[in-house]
Amino acid sequence: MQQLAASPQASALARSFVGRVCAEWDVPEHVEDALMIATELVENAIRHTTSTPRLRLELRRGVFTVAVADDDPRPAVLFELPRPGHGLGLRLVAQTSRVWGCSGSWTGGKVVWAVLARRRRSSRVRGR
Questions:
Q1: Which region holds residue 17: left if phi is over 0, alpha if psi is between -120 and 50, else beta?
Q2: In contact, 55 and 2? CB cutoff 8 Å
Q3: Which fold has domain 2-116?
Q4: Can you give the pLDDT of all 128 residues of the chain as single tens digits?
Q5: Where are the alpha helices (DSSP H) in 10-118?
Q6: Residue 124 burial (CB count, 10 A)
Q7: Which of 10, 37, 71, 99 would be 109's cystine partner, CB 3.0–4.6 Å?
Q8: How far is it, in rounded angstroms, from Cα 66 to Cα 85?
């Protein structure tokens, strides 16, 4: 888990964390989607709450999940139509992930999570 300060550098730190973990877990097929989803969820937490986001990645039985927790109890909401002043963050998360959701946390806040769609792992070309 990576705790992030509510600052302009949070998204870059989140992407760095995701890149390191994906490399460590050897899941290159998830890097691009995980980077985008983590960035969107972290930015939403910073934009819509006053708490510090906590980014967690999980890989269990081939299922890769990106989750961001914050201390605000208000659920994350995907509006049917884009609203002025709101970006496409959750819409991009919904389109990219297999499933996403928002759950209450034991501490009274929430966790917004997304399960990445499975992709075939591209075969690597080995050097001579």
A1: alpha
A2: yes
A3: Heat Shock Protein 90 (3.30.565)
A4: 888 888 889 999 999 999 999 999 999 999 999 999 999 999 999 988 989 999 999 999 889 999 999 999 999 888 665 555 555 678 889 999 999 999 999 888 999 999 997 665 554 443 43
A5: 10-25, 31-48, 89-96
A6: 7
A7: 71
A8: 25
CA atoms of 93 and 117, how far apart (whole Å): 11
Residues near 18 by beta carbon (within 8 Å), at least 6 away in sequence: 31, 34, 35, 38, 55, 57, 66
pTM of the model: 0.85
Domain ranges of the chain: 2-116
Give the residue among 73, 72, 105 at the shortest CA–CA distance from 6: 72
The DSSP call for residue 28 is G
